[in-house]
């Protein structure tokens, strides 16, 4: 027979315990606090799931923040400061809206580090994920002959479509043939699903070069049309971990 609240109260009293009956108002406050607590726990687990499936290069500090940016390592200190300021300003805008950001310029000038700094700041309120274009392509090729990897790639691409903020690192590192035969299709499918989300892209190629490498439909979904959302690191020297 199902026990009632009165039965449980009587049982506690027999054990020398004095149960406290909450008023409707107290119960409402408690339930609201528990709801907030469990929602926060769920959101934390969700954010961790995306980050757990990220692919960071071994040489990259995945915990990089704007405080780690060192303009003094550059000959043109003012330019290095301005680039970081632009990235920080865009990050603040992205907390309230969604749009794509493109970092382009020579290798080793800090594009990936600044993209990670943006991602880590946005991770305070949004889900985030980092994917290396090189590693994504390598997995894609392996998936053609390995069902286990194929399932992994499918799961990865689903998360890339869903996550609030995606950092796509080293776009354009694929060959011209890869771009036409494999990469463009991969990119289009993901980019097409992210029209209301944020994608932060790093590349050694300028927008014109990317336009020559990939098809118009893919580029139109990836490359920002607003010039203020495009940051060039040209003029900065190759300083790893800048």
Description:
The chain is α/β, with parallel strands linked by helices and 242 residues long. The protein has 2 domains: 5-44, no CATH class; 56-232, P-loop containing nucleotide triphosphate hydrolases (Rossmann fold). 52% of the residues lie in helices and 10% in strands. It contains 9 helices and 5 strands. The protein has helices spanning 5-14, 24-52, 77-94, 111-122, 133-143, 147-162, 176-192, 207-213, 216-222; strands at residues 101-104, 128-132, 165-171, 198-203, 230-232. Strands 2-3-4-1-5 form a 5-stranded parallel beta sheet. The chain is elongated.
Give the arrangement of secondary structure elements.
Layout: H1 5-14, H2 24-52, H3 77-94, E1 101-104, H4 111-122, E2 128-132, H5 133-143, H6 147-162, E3 165-171, H7 176-192, E4 198-203, H8 207-213, H9 216-222, E5 230-232
Helix pairs in contact: 3-4, 5-6, 6-7, 7-9
């Amino acid at each position: 027979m199902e026990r009632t609240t009165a039965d449980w109260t009587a049982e506690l009293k027999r054990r020398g315990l004095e149960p406290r009956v909450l008023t409707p108002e107290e119960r409402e406050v408690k339930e609201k606090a528990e709801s907030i607590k469990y929602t926060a726990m769920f959101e934390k687990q969700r954010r961790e799931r995306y980050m757990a499936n990220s692919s960071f290069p071994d040489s990259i500090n995945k915990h990089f923040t704007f405080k780690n940016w060192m303009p003094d390592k550059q000959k043109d200190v003012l330019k290095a400061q301005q680039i970081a300021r632009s990235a920080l300003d865009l990050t603040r805008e992205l907390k309230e809206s969604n749009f794509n950001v493109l970092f382009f310029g020579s290798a080793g000038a800090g594009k990936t580090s600044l993209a990670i700094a943006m991602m880590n700041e946005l991770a305070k309120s949004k889900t985030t994920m980092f994917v290396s274009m090189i590693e994504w392509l390598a997995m894609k090729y392996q998936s053609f002959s390995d069902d286990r990897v194929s399932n992994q790639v499918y799961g990865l691409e689903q998360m890339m479509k869903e996550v609030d903020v995606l950092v796509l690192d080293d776009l354009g590192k694929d060959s011209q043939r890869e771009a036409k035969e494999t990469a463009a299709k991969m990119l289009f499918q993901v980019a097409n699903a992210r029209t209301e989300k944020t994608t932060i892209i790093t590349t050694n190629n300028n927008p014109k070069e990317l336009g020559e490498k990939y098809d118009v439909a893919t580029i139109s979904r990836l490359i920002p049309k607003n010039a203020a959302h495009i940051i060039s690191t040209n003029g900065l020297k190759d300083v790893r971990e800048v």
